[in-house]
Specification:
alpha+beta, 6 helices, 53% helix, rod-shaped
Length: 232
C-alpha cells in the first residue's frame, strides 16, 4: 500500500488533525512524534478510547496493508499498549484493533485502543474481536507478517527455479562439449590411422635376393645361347 502525503488528500478528517488541528483536538492529543499522533476519541466507546494514526495518509483498508507498513503498524500497536498501561489498564482490560471496510468511518488508517469497561453493551458490539467489522490488531500484524514470509518464500522458489535453469543449461553445455570432444577424438583417431596406413604402404621393402636370382637366370640363358651359336 502506498503512503500518500496528507497534503494531497482532500476531505480527510485525520489529515486535518495532522495539518490543521483545532483547539479541541490539540487538547485531546496525548502523544505525538514525527510519524504518529495519538488522541482521545471525541465519542469514546469505553472508559479510555484512544485513536493512533500515522501522520502520512495511509488508506484505512487493513486487508491491503503490505510489508511496507509492517514497521508502522508495529509502532502503532506498541505505542497504544504503552499508553494504556500508563493509564493503569492491564492487558485483560484492553483491546486494540482496526475496523474493516466498509465499517470504518474515516479512510485514514487508525488504531482503536480501548480500556474497559465499555460505556454500554450496545456500543461494545462495534468492537467485537473476530466480527466482520472489527479485527484484533495482533491478527492484522500477523496477517502482514504472513505476506512477508510468503513473499520471501516466493522469492526463494523463484531463485531456486532460476538456479535450476542455470544448472540445466550448464549440464547441457557440458554434455555438448563432451560429445564434441568425442567426435573430434574419433576424427583424429581416424586420420592418424589413415596416415599410418599410407606410411606403411609407401615404406614397404622388396626382397633384393629375388632380383639377384632373376639376374643370374638371365646371364645363364644368354651364355647358353652364345655356346649354341658358336657350335654352329
Amino acid at each position: 500500500m502506498r503512503l500518500i502525503p496528507c497534503s494531497s488528500i482532500l476531505n480527510c478528517e485525520f489529515c486535518d488533525v495532522v495539518n490543521n488541528p483545532s483547539n479541541d483536538i490539540k487538547k485531546r492529543i496525548v502523544y505525538e512524534d514525527e510519524d504518529i499522533i495519538v488522541f482521545h476519541d471525541m465519542k469514546p466507546a469505553a472508559r479510555m478510547h484512544l485513536l493512533v494514526i500515522p501522520r502520512r495518509h495511509t488508506p484505512a483498508n487493513v486487508n491491503f496493508l503490505t510489508v511496507d507498513e509492517e514497521s508502522l503498524v508495529q509502532r502503532m500497536i506498541s505505542i497504544g499498549h504503552r499508553l494504556l498501561k500508563q493509564a493503569d489498564f492491564n492487558t485483560d482490560n484492553t483491546r486494540l484493533g482496526f475496523h474493516l471496510p466498509p465499517y470504518n468511518s474515516v479512510n485514514h488508517l487508525h488504531l482503536h485502543c480501548l480500556g474497559f469497561p465499555f460505556r454500554n453493551k450496545l456500543i461494545g458490539i462495534k468492537y467485537v474481536n473476530g466480527s466482520p467489522w472489527f479485527k484484533n490488531a495482533d491478527k492484522i500484524l500477523k496477517q502482514i507478517e504472513k505476506r512477508r514470509n510468503d513473499s520471501r518464500s516466493s522469492k526463494r522458489l523463484s531463485q531456486k527455479s532460476q538456479n535450476s535453469k542455470i544448472s540445466l543449461k550448464n549440464e547441457e553445455k557440458r554434455v555438448g562439449d563432451v560429445g564434441q570432444n568425442e567426435d573430434q577424438k574419433h576424427c583424429t583417431d581416424y586420420d592418424n590411422k589413415r596416415n599410418q596406413n599410407n606410411i606403411d604402404y609407401c615404406g614397404t621393402d622388396y626382397d633384393d635376393d629375388d632380383d639377384d636370382d632373376d639376374d643370374d637366370d638371365d646371364d645363364e640363358h644368354l651364355e647358353k645361347l652364345g655356346r649354341d651359336y658358336s657350335s654352329r
